[in-house]
Write a sequence for this structure.
């Protein structure tokens, strides 16, 4: 797995951390934990309270990138 360039400062992979899952850099929190909690109705603020090692900046970068990927996949991109 290769982390997209836009996310390389906020996500990392280390075989010795969480069995090589993609985690928020500097934490042991897999990014999938955030998306699972989001899907279950947890807001970003609550997630940050539950996982204080993750920063708001990290969440914002991941969310913006994910949203741009979804827009691209669904053909919702608009020319600026």
């Amino acid at each position: 797995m290769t982390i997209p360039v836009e996310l390389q400062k906020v996500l990392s992979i280390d075989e010795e951390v969480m069995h090589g899952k993609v985690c928020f850099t500097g934490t042991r929190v897999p990014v999938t934990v955030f998306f699972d909690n989001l899907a279950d109705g947890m807001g970003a603020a609550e997630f940050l309270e539950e996982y204080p090692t993750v920063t708001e900046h990290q969440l914002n970068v991941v969310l913006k990138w994910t949203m741009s990927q979804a827009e691209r996949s669904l053909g919702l991109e608009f020319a600026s």
